[in-house]
Amino acid sequence: MLAALNTHLLLQHAAPSLTIEACALLVAAIVWLHVFLKTLGEVAVVSYFNMCVNVSLLVIVIASSLSHPPTTPPHTTFVVTDAMSFGSAFASFGFAFGVHPVLPSIRSSMRRPAQYSSMVLCSFAGTLLFYLPITIVCYAVYGDEVQSPITDTEALEGSAAVKVVTAAITGHLIMSYPLLVLTPETALEETLRVDDRACPLAGRIMVRSLFIGFTTLVTIALRTPARFAPLLDLVSACTSTFTVFILPCVFYLKLRRMISDASLLRREVCWNALIVTLAATGAAFGTVDALNELVRSYAR
């Protein structure tokens, strides 16, 4: 969806008749080419491009923010009392670190699985380093006027640097699609035993085309920038919150009881129960707030 919105933004002056729906179909046609890739290892090279884009995004956004201050002093709300906002923030945080469903596939495709733990630690630390500087600088400069995505902030819109970033992000999003969707696609293919059929490529194309078709239909159904952020929060609250916070804690306690003769320590149970409680609360508030935002966007 964001790739389609960015494509429309970049091409609206060169091709005024180009609609967001057409941009969604264009992006879908490009990402459809991943149907010929079988494993994560085959798309690993994409990660290097994405890393370069993220570093460029970090530098350009911070530099643009500092060079394009607002015309009036910013107002920053330091303590937000709205519980629904807490839910949205929690959902967004979960989405940023929501790589957990892909981790088993990544480990199985690694040449040196022994480096898995260090890879995960470096990846999460790197994600934090990408988010914190942009968050701190942009909120310090623009306060409550910061938008999601950051390039939609009024003072940054239209600048040449932001257009370059938008183009790079669009490429990053298109390149990232196979990394994110390949795991559920291959899982469904294994369930349907696609590789055991007479023409596995045809079965793979059919399964993956269904995934692309679904995401394209969602994009066309929503298709406005105002609905992007609440959609992201809704998806995160309903999925990432569980895969990042709730299910890992539940599975940890279950496995701990299975493989250890010693009984669970009380502090282990309490700590995991606290995480599950906070995550469930954040997911509930995040879902309600995202749905309310989507309803309001249709009412405008």
Q: Would you write up a description of this structure?
A:
Helices cover 71% and strands 0% of the residues. It folds into two domains: 223 residues, no CATH class; 74 residues. The chain has ten helices and no strands. The chain is globular and about 65 Å long. With 300 residues, it is mostly helical.
When the domains are counted, the total is: 2
The count of β-strands is: 0
Order of helices and strands: HHHHHHHHHH
How many helices?
A: 10
**Alpha-carbon Rg, integer:** 21 Å
Query: What is the beta-strand fraction?
Result: under 5%
Query: Judging from the principal axes of the Cα atoms, what is the shape?
Result: globular
Distance between the termini: 20 Å
Helix content: over 70%
Q: For the report, how would you describe the main beta sheet?
A: none
Alpha-beta content class: mainly alpha
Low-confidence stretches: none
Mean of pLDDT: 84
GO cellular component, one term: vacuolar membrane
Membrane topology: Multi-pass membrane protein
GO molecular function, one term: L-amino acid transmembrane transporter activity
Organism: Chrysotila carterae
Features:
300 residues; mainly alpha; globular; L-amino acid transmembrane transporter activity; transmembrane; transmembrane helix; Amino acid transporter transmembrane domain-containing protein; membrane
